[in-house]
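A brief tutorial aside. Many learners find it easier to grasp structure tokens once they have seen a single protein encoded end to end. The record that follows does exactly this for BMP/retinoic acid-inducible neural-specific protein 2. Read the sequence first, then the structure, and try to relate runs of similar tokens to stretches of the chain.
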Amino acid sequence: MRWQRSSQFRGLWPEAAPWAVLLALGVPGWVLAASATVAVVVPEQHASSAAQAPLDWLLTDRGPFHRAQEYADFMERYRQGFTTRYRIYREFARWKVNNLALERKDFFSLPLPLAPEFVRNIRLLGRRPNLQQVTENLIKKYGTHFLLSATLGGEESLTIFVDKRKLGRKSETSGGVPVVGGSGNSSAVSLETLHQLAASYFIDRESTLRRLHHIQIATGAIKVTETRTGPLGCSNYDNLDSVSSVLVQSPENKVQLLGLQVLLPEHLRERFVAAALSYITCSSEGELVCRENDCWCKCSPTFPECNCPDADIQSMEDSLLQIQDSWATHNRQFEESEEFQALLKRLPSDRFLNSTAISQYWVMDTNVQHRYQQLGGSLKVLLKKMHRIVRRLFNLCKRCHRQPRFRLPKERPLSFWWNRIQSLLYCGESTLPGTFLEQSHSCTCPYDQSSCQGPIPCALGEGSACAHCASDNTTRCGSCNPGYVLAQGLCRPEVAESLENFLGLETDLQDLELKYLLQKRDSRIEVHSIFISNDMRLGSWFDPSWRKRMLLTLKSNKYKPGLVHVMLALSLQICLTKNSTLEPVMAIYVNPFGGSHSESWFMPVNEGNFPDWERTNVDAAAQCQNWTITLGNRWKTFFETVHVYLRSRIKSLDDSSNETIYYEPLEMTDPSKNLGYMKINTLQVFGYSLPFDPDAIRDLILQLDYPYTQGSQDSALLQLIELRDRVNLLSPPGKVRLDLFSCLLRHRLKLANNEVGRIQSSLRAFNSKLPNPVEYETGKLCS
């Protein structure tokens, strides 16, 4: 069978394109088209000529020629300066090929004209051949399919766009460009050279393309485009062996194949299909097995790794590595983009920028956000492709002895880029920038860089951060927030100076030590005070029917102006007559720093967690007991005067319940009916005295009105706040603390009420400006 070949040329007819000239070269099937320098004709020029008027529909923006792809390509080249186009092409006729042998069998019921050798190989297989025999005798010799029908034919062409202005320059055309002919016009010689090269394209394609590409690179005067469809490089088709090289690859011209098993006897078809599947799928290295929607190769002993396509796995792993490189390239391009670098330049350098501050600049920059969205879109495409490859890779490695090796990259969050900006700002003093650690304000440099950290400006903000950076050195603080003091370029919490010059408070006793001293009634912890009572005298018997009032006072302003006193315990020694049924009951009021009795607070004995009286027998004959209430370090408090109100109650035994009951005694007018007498031998206060300098505190208060410097005023306020808190800490128990500090100012410093109020207001205002201020409510005790 011999295949025919036809040739035809394409181009615009002369009457359809007035600027085109068609030149026949004499070689069958070849056409060389040369366009003139004028490629565009405006519609007005066509309207002026009656002969060209019918062609206006072809050249308008709505005409078919204007929408043609070739015209669009030509116009694009024309705008670039390539005003002339040469195109040479050849086309082979399209043939429809059908298998006549099957047509004879289907329509005329004739036997298939099979080759004798093919029939002999079928007979050699026998009745039950194994898969290896089918593969060796049939598949490897004849394949698995044969051709039913196909379409032959195609086209190939060469297009050269020429810029005659560049081609006419001797300086550019003389180097490396072959000159044909002896004409003095270099432009004509160069055009002639292009004519000859175009004419030799189908004779010596590789040499022609090599010379054309050389001219294109050397001069920049031409652009070469090669188009090939169908029978690439074939000139004739003499037999079926060349069919595969001339099949047209297009959707409408598909190759139709049929399995070879239809030509085999019935008993060989199933074995042939199994052998073909094993041959195609397992590459003759095993047998294909399918069970429960899953197929694999049962490997032969010679090929134990037939289920593991190493080449495909390696290719996919290489693809994953390429995607990782592309991923890194996208991130690097984003970092090097104009938008990212512009944001970096706009950031202020006179203060430290933490991640929050950088995020605010980031949000306000719409350009960098748009560029970041583009980065996210590109990475999502790569990630989707990577997941697809990974799924295929796991499917391939399902029955491999080794697992695939790859690493999935992760999209960098915004926090990474904010930290990256910090690293570029503060860790870029070396070739490769380091990594900035915001917690420690330091840089981690690359292993080959000794130092990468640059000057880090001071951090502005609240608390220990700087209020302003120093003008001469931005790495150090220039000023601090209230409550902090500038020390060596840093803002440190401003701590009140020691209060020992004003009030000594560091004389606490340990609980065990205090308990031991109280048991021994050690005189070293007794605060000597003055006993005053108009109702009774110490050591004398009295009738307790009526309430008795007594007090212990220190008169510190008169006798001890340099001391304040702390009470740790109160003790009374009470004696009762024999067979007395009276029980003493005492109410204790404590005045912390002096003043009237109304400025005393009531001691809540045995209420809540407050301690109760402890009674110990002293003299059984006289029925004397020591009544002691121990406040200890937990309930200790300041005292100047202790008021004791003594009354009594009758103790009786309830016969019905064997419990002791108490009731108030009736007024006795007849002394013979007295229920007993009572005597108080001692009344003592145990505690200690603290040094106190009222003049120094007055000088400290004067600094609030006449500060020498702002620092001295802040220091005085801090010391007064510390003094206030330490004094109020010894407030008696209750839901609200009592304002003992105002009592100290009022009675020991002799300040007026308005002065005390002004000082308290100043302290509250300053305390609200301090970091982490602690405010607590206090109750008024002193007027």
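Self-check: The first strand starts at residue 20 and ends at 24. If you spotted this yourself, you are ready for the next section.
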